[in-house]
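Posting this for the archive.
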Amino acid sequence: MVVDMAVTGFIFGALGQVIAFAVAVTLFVRSAPARRRWAAHRQAGWTTAQCRADDARRSGVEHIRMLNACLRKLGLRPVPPPTPWTPPPPKKPTVMSRLSVVLVILMVVFGVVILASPWLDTRDVQSIRCEVVSAEPRTTSSGLRGSVTTVSVLVKTQDCGPLAVHWGVTSDNQDEIAASFIPGATYEFDIGWFSRTFFKNGIQSARDYRLIGKPA
């Protein structure tokens, strides 16, 4: 479960980073003239409101120019130039804008936790003793259209709930590891902090295990 979430989170996180980088580069290149003009105005002593007003005026003039060019081709009367624009007073942040900021921060934190889940699962590892009921191979798919397949062994226990063994499990030895578990025997499983905290009532991932006692 932890590995599946980490792989899926990594794929979506990487895709989001690529898209964000492409958008950022495009905006940076297209806004270069405006940034140079803004810097020159600031050096001349203009305020931020004056710079924004000038940008709005230039944008309006450019739109009117393009519109008038189309109107002239159609034989219509051109539109008069826009009147000077006065910047409105700054608005206080609304409740919705603050909630949006909080939501974005929570999404970023959630994404960081998902990407760091394998490392977090190596912290504060604790051992628990459980009586094994059964064990079976388990294969899950994640990512875009199930592009990533993760193999593990699902161990059902009497007193610890279901546990997933990922570490060292491959498609070649998956059946062999599942068959090695003895029903009724007591095993000791090492559970990391992430699995123990976020999957306490779900399928926890065991980093390692060892046989403690065979059934009588």
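The mean pLDDT is 79. DSSP finds seven helices and five strands in the chain.
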